[in-house]
Amino acid sequence: MKPSVKYFSWANTLTLTLALTSLLISCKKDPEKVKKVSKLMSSLGVEKATDVAISYTDSGILKAKIFSPLMERYPQKADPYMEMKKGVKGYFYNPSGEIESSLTADYAISYENKKTIEVRNNVKVKNTRNEELETEKLTWDQRSEKIYTDNFIKIKTPDEILYGTGFESNQNFTRYRIKNLKGRVSIK
């Protein structure tokens, strides 16, 4: 799956980096100026965008859409990543283009090379069968199209509430298994 994102001006970043580099070279005799320019250059590595919408597709078929009010990308790292510190909302689609499940969390981090997205804090996933997963940490592996966690989970279905530790599912949360079921409560 390839994300399509439109939010950065690479030309502006390159121009600013070159300008700051030349400024750093020209003021190497003034340690205070060098310190200020070095600090500014190190902050250039973070690319920020607001009101972001990312579409994940595979062979032209929409698989997921992710929305976040703020995204920060760190491209200079060995494994570039994007952080969404102000929360994330996502939708997963079936091959017909219909929403099959949704996800919300207070924080997300996406590792570009690993093709994984980890969501944390108040994680909720809902599917079209009116089932809801709650946990504090969940990982989406884009390559295997699976979501999983080793943390405590709670799943509400129309008939029961399931508690356990560890969970694995397809990315649409329509076929899942709880690794260590701790309890089951029937709802009437």
Labels describing this entry:
56% strand; 16% helix; six-stranded antiparallel β-barrel; disordered N terminus; 12 strands; 188 residues; lipopolysaccharide transport protein A fold; alpha+beta
Largest sheet: 6 strands, antiparallel, barrel
> Average pLDDT value?
81
Q: What spatial form do the alpha-carbon principal axes imply?
A: globular
Over all CA atoms, what is the radius of gyration? 21 Å
The quaternary organization reads as single chain
Structure commentary:
With 188 residues, the protein is of the alpha+beta class. The chain has a single domain (47-186), classed as Lipopolysaccharide (LPS) transport protein A like domain (lipopolysaccharide transport protein A fold, Sandwich), CATH 2.60.450.10. It contains 2 helices and 12 strands. It has helices spanning 10-26, 31-43; strands at 2-4, 47-58, 61-74, 81-84, 88-93, 99-105, 107-111, 116-127, 132-141, 146-156, 160-170, 176-186. Strand 10 and strand 11 (160-170) form a beta hairpin. Helix 1 packs antiparallel against helix 2 (31-43). The longest helix has 17 residues, at 10-26. It is globular, with a radius of gyration of 21 Å. The two termini are 41 Å apart.
Give a nutshell description of this structure:
This protein is of the alpha+beta class. It has one domain: Lipopolysaccharide (LPS) transport protein A like domain (lipopolysaccharide transport protein A fold).
Topology:
Layout lengths: L1 E3 L5 H17 L4 H13 L3 E12 L2 E14 L6 E4 L3 E6 L5 E7 L1 E5 L4 E12 L4 E10 L4 E11 L3 E11 L5 E11 L2
Antiparallel strand pairs: 1-2, 2-3, 3-4, 3-5, 4-7, 5-6, 6-8, 7-8, 8-9, 9-10, 10-11, 11-12
Helix pairs in contact: 1-2
